[in-house]
């Protein structure tokens, strides 16, 4: 393949953004093959703005058209696994918007299916392209700072006003989206958290539904986790705080790393803290500590980076930004947070997937239908 | 009274520090009347360094001597309430080192007793003298930023090496100290937290015993709280992290306040966030935010400030830094954190004090006795 003809399924907020950047020629090795959307208003938008791109009113017809080599699935979350499976089954490669799905059981079944065929399944974890998070992972993986002792992510800078939630009938409903801030805003953070720090083994969480908005799903979450090595962690998020905070701190044997998404600061000890404790007889005192603003490569290509890597992978076999199968990890944490809060219990990972789905389905069964027209928002700079 | 003749009960780490500053003439209106300690080594230290100050080998004899108008109780924690009560009963004023006690039941009984007589009961909450915390309280109390939505205190800069715990036989034992980081290092923070943000109504906590040190009590704590108005909060502390972090963030309707104990930063919104949400139709967007480094009076007199205020109160009737009775609040939070972790349940405040004491007594009954000589440490700059 010399160039990937992409088909975008769902040209709402995210899908239309991808279409714009591909049509602008920003994605080496990728051209628009076609788009599909069930919403006539969105097809009209495509016709008006990009009249040369073929349009379909359903994904299957587009996948069968022969016009596309690969698809981007940018539909409401529940449909991600089934559409990915359909695309792979038709011999197409597929890139899923986040989250991988709404419940791990569906994603696990998809992952099993992926193993039976040879097409590429990728996921839009665009924040993995951010130089500061990449560098943080590199430092921790290198072992130079020892093992992790504590993680702490205060990620409350996802503020959304009520009009955001009113912009789509599926938004922020159990039936349409399957959750709130954990499913919509935080898949990036939950993925980065596990990518950089590893998977927790136990989660106790407190999710609050409609705390800051007129919605039925959670817009405020505090979670406490424990890792297999005994380390602990906290994850706090909300769409109700302004200006909010993005502060990820990881404490290790050799000091700590603090990242606000733009800058990475290292506090490096002269020796590992347990080594110091073993020999220091002074009662008070601590290892010497040096504060370092960590240099990175400065690259942060975000969605364009993921799309370029996807195209290059299909053309040249170079690595993806994230394999689709990795999407189950952050979703597992998200599902565990919900399940813990719903049951009032600490949840051990991997979760009981049937129990989670049964609890989710209870909420879907009584999900409130929203009325009114959907509005497509410009997401520039919001993710 | 023109000058307060103070008697210090317990001249270990803290008591000897107070003695030094009083003998250096740093405390207006206060002179050393006498000292009492059950440890001959400490009396020898006093004799060698301050031979003119009368010494007693027990507190009662000193209180009965007529040489003191007021006492500072700087003994192991369990003894605080009983010694305060004895002093007040003998017509002396009393200043308690923190914590007010080990369990709220004892402190509540003391508070009831205090109401029956007219002597002063104060407590050493020296961090209340810090200009940044005073300013933070002033801003929140003024209401200019609306109601609190979230509190978050990452207070892990209490690092202690093993030699600290090995320095005293009573230290870090259920029998001697009644707890670890919550009872020894955090009384200041728990008091400031409730002083600035108010008392929580529900607490779920995870305390880890001897996680970073060879001790039987907790040296690592994560707690989630809910306030009566629905706000939530997190408190994380440890003596195992180096360099650790001190970062108190309070989110309010009108923005947020962030304090590291030295600097106070305000993020002030152009309008309250819920007002913005009610009228903003843009989907994305947030109120404008201005970052301000808040000016304070720069004063931070710490222990000397508390001692001066105590003397001035007795001489001139001016306000104390903290009434002794206020000490029960931080201790209630501490007890609730322990109780939640011990029972694996969320604890509602006020706690069941008998249940807490029964649980504490179980741990005291099997408390490990430590052997070896106690060492007195120079606490300069450690609190």
Proportion of strand residues of chain A: 15-25%
Estimated structural class of chain A: alpha/beta
What would you report as the Rg of chain A, rounded to the nearest angstrom? 22 Å
Point out poorly predicted stretches of chain A.
Answer: none
Q: Main beta sheet of chain A: strand number and arrangement?
A: 9 strands, mixed
Instruction: Determine the most extensive contact between two protein chains.
Output: A-B, 61 and 61 residues
What's the order of the H and E elements of chain A? EHEHEHEHEHEHEHHEEEEEEHEHHEH
Distance between the termini of chain A: 31 Å
Describe the oligomeric state of these chains in a short phrase: homodimer
Query: What is the strand tally of chain A?
Result: 15
Number of helices of chain A: 12
Task: Explain the overall architecture.
2 copies of one chain form a homodimer. Chain A has helices at residues 13-23, 40-49, 59-64, 80-89, 104-114, 131-142, 162-165, 187-197, 273-279, 302-316, 327-343, 353-365; strands at 4-9, 30-36, 55-56, 70-73, 93-96, 121-123, 148-155, 202-209, 218-226, 232-238, 246-252, 255-259, 264-269, 289-293, 347-348. With 383 residues, the first copy, chain A, is α/β, with parallel strands linked by helices. In chain A, strands 14-13-12-11-7-10-9-8-15 form a 9-stranded mixed beta sheet. A 6-stranded parallel beta sheet of chain A has the order 3-2-1-4-5-6, with helices on both faces. In chain A, a hairpin with a 2-residue loop joins strand 11 (246-252) and strand 12. In chain A, helix 4 packs parallel to helix 5, helix 6 runs parallel beside helix 8 and helix 8 packs across helix 11 (327-343). At the A-B interface, strand 7, helix 7, strand 8, strand 9 and strand 10 of A face strand 7, helix 7, strand 8, strand 9 and strand 10 of B.
């Amino acid at each position: 393949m010399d160039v990937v003809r992409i088909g975008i399924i769902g040209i709402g907020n995210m899908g239309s953004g991808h279409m714009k950047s591909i049509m602008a020629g920003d994605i080496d090795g990728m051209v628009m093959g076609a788009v599909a959307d069930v919403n006539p208003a969105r097809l009209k938008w495509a016709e008006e703005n990009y009249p040369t791109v073929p349009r379909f009113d359903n994904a299957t017809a587009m996948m069968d058209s022969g016009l596309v080599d690969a698809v981007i699935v940018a539909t409401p979350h529940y449909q991600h696994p089934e559409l990915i499976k359909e695309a792979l089954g038709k011999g197409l490669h597929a890139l899923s918007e986040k989250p991988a799905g709404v419940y791990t059981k569906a994603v696990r079944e998809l992952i099993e299916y992926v193993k039976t065929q040879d097409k590429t399944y990728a996921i839009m974890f665009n924040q993995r392209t951010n130089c500061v998070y990449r560098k943080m992972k590199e430092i921790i993986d290198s072992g130079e700072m020892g093992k992790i002792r504590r993680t702490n992510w205060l990620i409350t800078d996802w503020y959304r006003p009520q009009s955001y939630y009113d912009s789509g009938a599926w938004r922020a409903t159990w039936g349409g989206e399957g959750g709130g801030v954990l499913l919509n805003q935080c898949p990036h953070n939950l993925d980065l958290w596990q990518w950089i720090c590893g998977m927790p083994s136990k989660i106790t969480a407190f999710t609050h539904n409609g705390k800051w908005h007129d919605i039925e799903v959670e817009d405020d979450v505090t979670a406490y986790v424990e890792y297999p090595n005994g380390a602990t962690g906290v994850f706090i998020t909300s769409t109700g705080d302004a200006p909010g905070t993005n502060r990820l701190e990881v404490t290790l044997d050799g000091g700590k790393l603090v990242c606000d998404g733009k800058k990475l600061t290292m506090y490096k000890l002269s020796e590992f803290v347990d080594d110091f404790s073993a020999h220091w007889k002074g009662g008070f005192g601590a290892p010497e500590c040096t504060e370092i603003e960590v240099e990175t490569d400065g690259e942060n290509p975000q969605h364009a980076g993921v799309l370029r890597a996807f195209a290059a992978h299909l053309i040249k076999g170079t690595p993806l930004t994230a394999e689709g199968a990795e999407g189950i990890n952050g979703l597992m944490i998200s599902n565990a947070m919900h399940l813990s809060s719903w049951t009032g219990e600490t949840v051990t990972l991997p979760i009981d997937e049937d129990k989670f789905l049964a609890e989710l389905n209870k909420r879907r069964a009584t999900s409130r239908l929203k009325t009114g027209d959907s509005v497509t928002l410009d997401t520039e700079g919001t993710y």
